[in-house]
Recover the amino acids of this structure.
């Protein structure tokens, strides 16, 4: 049974309103810790108000995250959920508010594509504060969704355009081998292992093409089962040291937790 | 805790870079993950019209490997399925047969499927229906095959309400949809996923209907063993799902 220390960089403890009560959060934290999870990045209830939430809705979502940080400051790491289409003024106001509350990163979902010019103020702010940006990413090849869903090509272009900002490209199992290849030669780009089912061979491929240093463990709970997400790393055919890097030490370094 | 794996394949899957293992290497791999017994089918049967030669090869090879129970695949769109089945019965103590309806292009509503069900019920041989091999969203563009529909499974289960059968490869929403209307349907957990999964499934179906399946080699074996090991249910229930149900159902 896996016994590694783990940082989960991709979690939605509250999802479509469920999981927000103190007893529910207590249960999740206790269960997660029993599996070795030391810290969990809370990305917010990102789709509860649809793909493009208003400023008020964003504040409500981020307030829920802040509540989790208040209850478990040593366990949760808060990411501020933002909608770049709302413009620089609103974006900066919400980001500053969240950073004052101890948030340590930015979460972006499907309000717009990562290649859009409106990303510029957000990425400049992220560079200014030296915080990572986690971008939802999926293989959109042949799918009519790319206006708002970022393909790995789009997220990698974002990282290429803003080399001073660390970008986490979410969902290795959603963007697949093509995304891994796009991610080569981008030292400020990380990928997370969240989402989908644990099909064999993909993590091995990612480690071979990128090295383990830019790969971060993520689950995407509650859409996924924690045991399955951990087991896909611990059971993969990569060196033990690489597993430790992916499960823990890469994120530990990224968030300056050492 | 040890496991009996009811969703196990052997051979080469051409659309991913997977570990290539001989049958003895597969046994050793399963041992590493405390899988003491596996019901295994040959992947080659999915890609050739007549699965019979590959089935016979597997039956022969497994004779020397007591921890593997070979599960022949039948293509019900071919005229020789019954003849093949009778040959397998003559050669071995056959525990189960497996269907891949959408790979072999027939429906569970077909006459041959009804005939097979009657045959299996009479001979106490179990039926495994594979619903899918991959998440349809991530299939290689050169092979796109939809999963067997819930509608078909409901129609089949309700047509033969006294015939208990096992599905492999069902997603959690599909299991939830089938749970109440098909009490004779059992499922493996390889494609089912959600936080607190097993606990949630046990709210809508009895534990005797849940089976362990790793979907090795297409999935990471440990992802599915640890999914059950780490689940928030009693040890007795884990043991039942990990191996007890399969041992009873397949009379292992």
């Amino acid at each position: 049974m896996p016994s590694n220390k783990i940082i989960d960089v991709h979690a939605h403890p509250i999802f479509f309103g469920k999981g927000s009560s103190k007893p529910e959060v207590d249960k999740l934290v206790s269960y997660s810790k029993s599996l070795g999870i030391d810290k969990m990045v809370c990305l917010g209830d990102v789709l509860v108000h649809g793909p493009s939430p208003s400023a008020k809705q964003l504040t409500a979502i981020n307030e829920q995250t802040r509540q989790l940080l208040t209850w478990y400051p040593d366990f949760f790491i808060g990411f501020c959920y933002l909608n770049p289409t709302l413009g620089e003024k609103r974006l900066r106001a919400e980001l500053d508010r969240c950073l004052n509350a101890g948030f340590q990163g930015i979460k972006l979902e499907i309000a717009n594509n990562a290649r859009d010019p409106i990303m510029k103020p957000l990425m400049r702010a992220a560079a200014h504060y030296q915080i990572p940006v986690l971008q939802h990413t999926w293989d959109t090849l042949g799918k009519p969704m790319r206006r708002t869903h970022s393909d790995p090509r789009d997220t990698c272009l974002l990282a290429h355009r803003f080399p001073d900002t660390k970008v986490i490209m979410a969902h290795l199992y959603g963007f697949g081998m093509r995304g891994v290849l796009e991610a080569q030669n981008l030292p400020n780009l990380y990928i997370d292992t969240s989402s989908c089912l644990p099909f064999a061979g993909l993590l091995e491929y990612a480690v071979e093409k990128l090295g383990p240093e830019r790969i971060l463990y993520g689950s995407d709970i509650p859409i996924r089962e924690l045991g399955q997400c951990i087991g896909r790393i611990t059971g993969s055919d990569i060196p033990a040291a690489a597993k430790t890097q992916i499960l823990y030490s890469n994120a530990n370094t990224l968030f300056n937790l050492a | 805790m040890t496991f009996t794996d009811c969703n196990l394949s052997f051979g080469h899957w051409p659309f991913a870079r997977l570990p290539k293992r001989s049958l003895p290497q597969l046994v050793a791999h399963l041992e590493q993950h405390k899988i003491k017994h596996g019901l295994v089918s040959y992947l080659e049967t999915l890609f050739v019209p007549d699965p019979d030669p590959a089935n016979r090869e597997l039956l022969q090879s497994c004779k020397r490997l007591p921890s593997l129970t070979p599960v022949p695949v039948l293509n019900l769109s071919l005229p020789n399925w019954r003849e093949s089945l009778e040959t397998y019965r003559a050669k071995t103590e056959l525990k189960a047969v497996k269907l891949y309806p959408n790979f072999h292009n027939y429906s569970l509503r077909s006459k041959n499927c009804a005939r097979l069900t009657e045959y299996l019920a009479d001979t106490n041989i179990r039926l495994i229906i594979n619903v899918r091999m991959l998440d349809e969203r991530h299939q290689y563009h050169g092979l796109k095959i939809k999963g067997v529909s819930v509608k078909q499974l409901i129609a089949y289960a309700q047509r033969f309400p006294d015939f208990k059968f096992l599905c492999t490869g069902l997603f959690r929403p599909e299991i939830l949809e089938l749970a109440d209307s098909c009490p004779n349907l059992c499922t493996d957990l390889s494609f089912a996923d959600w936080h607190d999964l097993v606990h949630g499934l046990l709210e809508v179906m009895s534990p005797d209907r849940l089976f362990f399946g790793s979907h090795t080699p297409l999935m990471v074996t440990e992802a599915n063993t640890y999914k059950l090991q780490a689940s928030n249910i009693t040890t007795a229930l884990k043991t039942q799902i990990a191996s007890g149900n399969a041992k009873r159902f397949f009379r292992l």
In short: The two ends of chain A are 26 Å apart (CA to CA). Chain A has a mean pLDDT of 96. Chain A touches chain B through 35 residues (CB under 8 Å). The domain at 6-254 of chain A is CATH 3.20.20.140 (TIM Barrel).
